[in-house]
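Two quick folds needed for the group meeting slides. Do the first one here.
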Amino acid sequence: MATEVVVPTLGESITEATVGEWLKQPGEAVAADEPIASLETDKVSVEVPSPVAGVMGEHAVKVGDTVQVGALLATVGEGGAGAAPAAPAASAPAPAAPAQPEQPSGDAAAALSPSVRRAVLEHGVDPATIKGTGKDGRLTKEDVAAAASSKPAATPAATPSPAQPAAGGGRKEERVKMTRLRQTIAKRLKEAQNTAAMLTTFNDVDMTAVIEARAKYKDLFEKKHGVRLGFMGFFVKAATMALKDIPSVNASIEGDEIVYHDYADISVAVSAPNGLVVPVIRDAQDLSVAGIEKTIGDFGRRAKDGSLKMDEMKGGTFTISNGGVFGSLMSTPIINPPQSAVLGLHRIEERPVVVNGQVVVRPMMYLALSYDHRLIDGREAVTFLVALKNAIEDPTRILIDL
């Protein structure tokens, strides 16, 4: 008897999702609670586990289909790991067996997502020789790209292939449907531009004191708290102090009312296999630098393995986006409605500055605050950035709440 697998409850107000990829194919053995499919919602990817152990049945929907909560995804038939060979034997059609060798790496190819399969074919690498960094050791596109770039011997053999179409004047295009997450990001960012009166104010900050404090205490910090001491802990804590002094930066507009928050729920962008996600540090004003670093570290690990929950992405009163990790020198970030402001951090680079009448070289970072001018005046935006700058340049202020 087959057990039905349906679309699970995805969170408050979320009624549908898009099928991102199938992690199990018909006829494969499935363990209880083993992920069989990945669904993409407006905020994050969600893996659907099998409710029972058995053999994967037919898929009821295809990759890219939109499915409602409670809709049938697939069935799992009775049997365990030992029953898996019986399924191919019963479906005696010979073409099913030869289909396997056509995959880039034999049996391992079945576990690859469509995007990873395509990357494997494009780069001409053997996925069996690559160590996966995704959940349960699965390969990601980044793993394939990294393996291809670290394989110099393959380059000479690969060059004649692309050269031939170029000589013949041929050019290729590929059309890939936008994921639900990317569609939602595009929609929300455009809505923000259409709704808010956005303006960006800049400042710069001397990172000398924070860099010295981090170098001095990072080993003791990691030994005591079990997490690395980064720069985000300082910036989040300094931001909560500045938000307390300038409450309009932490407020939002609802209709004809301004909603002021006596708490700071800070949204921070972290990397996930399918792009950036923005979980929320709740009540960041009550956390120490260590507590903030632990929370961000936990978000980063769970974003990588796809176990962040929907509720952890909701809300947020203020956002911090760190483009500096990708090398950005300066940017004008877009606010995340209904929030009214977003702080952009950028790369640290040594620049000549004047200190006490002398030209010295200091590690400097540009700060950018984009804000909704309907709610936040220029004076308030500048005051916020100056308060943040003062706290970072003299971290003792963070300790004594000054």
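Then this one, please, same format:
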Amino acid sequence: MDRLGRALGFADGALWVKRDDLTGLGGGGNKVRKLEFLVGAALAQGCDTLLTGGAAQSNHVRLTGAAARASGLSCTAVLGGHPPERAEGNVVLDQLFGIEAVWIGDYDATRLETMLAETAMRLTADGRHPSEIPLGGASPVGTLGYVVAAGELAAQAPLGSLVYTATGTGGTQAGLAVGFGHHDRVRGVDVGAVPEVAGRIEALAPSVASLAGRPFPEGRPQLDHSQIGDGYGTRSAAVLEALTLAARHEGLIFDPVYSGRALAALIADRRSGRLGPDQPVVMLHTGGAPALFTERFRDWFADG
């Protein structure tokens, strides 16, 4: 991203983007890498339903529905929020994929996880065979997708690159750290999706490493909490600037909930001098464009 890099004071060839928004299923996004392993496990276990959950506009839920249909399975999702009077963003795609939605009221990650377990029991009692996928697909099996991704990045990006990624439930960051062998190679930007995400990463990484036959990653998770703002999924001036700079210098669409926050943190680190002009940096683009087409964000750029 040399044009954006020059605007931020990077040397040419220092700033890169990994286009995981282009993964080839259901509109793309980082969750496709996790679902490759999660769906394989579900099929091996004879399951007929993928069960997961997330916020009302969850990219993970949308892609789980797509993966289910591509694999001959059905999908049920527990969603934090209220049934909308008019579908928008990811909810339109959820309906297109025929996801059975279970709405639980205002978003709360802990309550979502409880309702996931209860819904799994209900489906089982109804004679179905659900595969329960945790929020964000952040299980040891799902996280293997980003162990593989770290190998891709090591082959593609300049030597010594630092990877910036949005961190929601922690699976992407944990997988990259295991794949690279060190937490210091990954700068996670907390989006405020779940409490105590650092603890989740630290608990997940050893299990993933054991499953992948890798050593435990060295160091501790590197997390930036500066972009949470007023809370998960809210608007912020820093994210608006990041999205606008990426669009107008590179023609790239970042999302306002996840990758836009990671890009905002990257920009802040470059301006503060935390990132030098020659430091090779990879921005992991995790997808999520449907969020831009919701009432909260769709008029955001009208005055710019």
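Slide caption for protein two: The chain has ten helices and nine strands.
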